[in-house]
């Protein structure tokens, strides 16, 4: 019913803990002065954990 407030890695679906280093893929905002940064990230960003980034860089 309600969406989870946890952030997940888009590759391995691991829950990303608060304070954990991540890589984020997001679009440049259309408007200036975004005040709700957390909401913008939750709606527009794709998060990758460091383990998945290491694997993808190793495969290149």
From TrEMBL:
Domain of life (superkingdom): Bacteria
Protein name, UniProt field: Fe3+ hydroxamate ABC transporter substrate-binding protein
Species this protein is from: Brochothrix thermosphacta (Microbacterium thermosphactum)
């Amino acid at each position: 019913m309600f969406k989870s407030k946890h952030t997940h890695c888009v590759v391995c679906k691991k829950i990303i803990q608060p304070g954990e280093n991540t890589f984020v893929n997001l679009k440049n905002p259309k408007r200036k002065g975004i005040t709700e940064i957390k909401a913008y990230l939750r709606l527009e960003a794709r998060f990758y954990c460091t383990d998945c980034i290491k694997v993808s860089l190793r495969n290149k």
